[in-house]
Amino acid sequence: WQCKTGTLFLTVYILASTPALPEISREAAEVVAARHARTCYVEMMDGQLKCGGRPRRSLAAARALLGPGTLAKPNEPPTCNAGKPTWLFKWRGFPDQAPIGVDAETGKLIECRS
Fold it and tell me: Quick one: which H or E segment has residue 17?
């Protein structure tokens, strides 16, 4: 019995010491990021990527513009100062642009700077 109690205590300790898993899956965060990417375009005057307004492409086309999402820890992303776990989606064709950040707990967009 003593061995089982020790194993149970160790398991609880390990689970308690690991960081919380994100509540929003990568797939759900990707949909949020793609919805935002639907509104983005390159401004011809200055060649900068601008986002906002009405959707300019389908959701599938917007998803194709983004790389696979990566879960960044609160202290990792220097471009997104969210202070909590964040899904980051980098642009495939625009490597110098800031990634699209999605809060891994709430599923809301996070402002990222390049």
Answer: helix 2-17
Q: Is residue 6 pLDDT above 70, yes or no? A: no
In the sheet that holds 109-110, the strands lie side by side as: 70-72, 86-89, 100-103, 109-110
DSSP secondary-structure letter at 91?
B
- Rounded to 5°, the CA angle 68-107-57 comes to 60
Q: Annotate 3-14 with b (16+ C-beta within 10 A) or e (fewer).
A: eeeeeeeeeeee
71: its two tokens: 């879960």
Sequence letter at residue 65: L
In whole angstroms, give the CA distance from residue 76 to residue 86: 9
Residues in CB range of 40: below 8 A, 6 or more apart: 49, 50, 51, 56, 62, 65
On the question of pLDDT at 105 being above 60, the answer is yes
